Amino acid sequence: ALTAIAVELSKQGQVEESASVMQEALAIARGISDDWEKSRALKDIALELSKQANFAMAQEVGLEIPKITERQDAWMEIAKTSVATDGWQKALRQVEIFQSDETKLFYLKGWVKTLNVSDVDNACLKEALVKLLSDNASIEQLLQKYALRQVCMGKSLKDRTDRLNRTLNIQWAIDIK
Question: Could you report the per-residue pLDDT of 44-90, keeping only the tens digit for each?
Fold first, then answer.
């Protein structure tokens, strides 16, 4: 409830009051003894902090989430919100703000998952692959989206389409087209 109040205060331009209420919400969340409830509360706070572009504090709060799955889900939801708010390019660059390898990994997983097929052009692929080097599953998911864009939206040459199909098994998309 305090997090929701802090959000409303922020929307009304009462930034100092919002920060004070958010700190109170954080203190209460830290005092919750049940790990599931504590994880949910901290996750909600981290998401709201990221929506306010306070990524450093969002990371700090997120790292306190005791349940690993909830913590990892928080990073992916933060990425989803960031893509929706700022677009794929700015959201991708925001990963550099994070210090934790876990945060970066799951933020990028969420980023890739959130992308639309229409987003994954040559520029997106070039910029993203460098950041995804340690996550083969996300690279494959990104390449799948790229291949679908090429087959369904682009003017892909037959040999290029065949190569994409051999590598990424997109025959179903070729058949539909």
Answer: 999 988 888 888 889 999 999 999 999 999 999 999 999 999 999 99
Expressed in angstroms, the distance from the first to the final Cα of the chain is: 49
Q: Count the Cβ atoms, other than its own, within 10 Å of residue 175.
A: 7
Within the chain, where are the H helices?
2-11, 15-30, 35-51, 55-62, 68-93, 101-114, 122-131, 136-152, 158-168, 171-176
From the number of C-beta atoms within 10 Å of its C-beta (0-12, 13-18, 19+), residue 117 rates as: middle
Rounded distance between C-alpha atoms, residue 37 and residue 66, angstroms: 10
Query: Using CA atoms, how far apart are residues 122 and 170, in angstroms rounded to an integer?
Result: 18
User: What is the rounded distance in angstroms from the CA atom of residue 85 to the CA atom of residue 106?
Assistant: 18
pLDDT tens sequence across 105-142: 999 999 999 999 899 998 999 999 999 999 999 998 99
Helix residue ranges per DSSP H, 94-157 = 101-114, 122-131, 136-152
Gap between the Cα atoms of 86 and 106, Å rounded: 18
In this prediction the pTM is: 0.81
The backbone torsions φ and ψ at residue 147, rounded to the nearest 5 degrees and listed phi first, read -65, -40
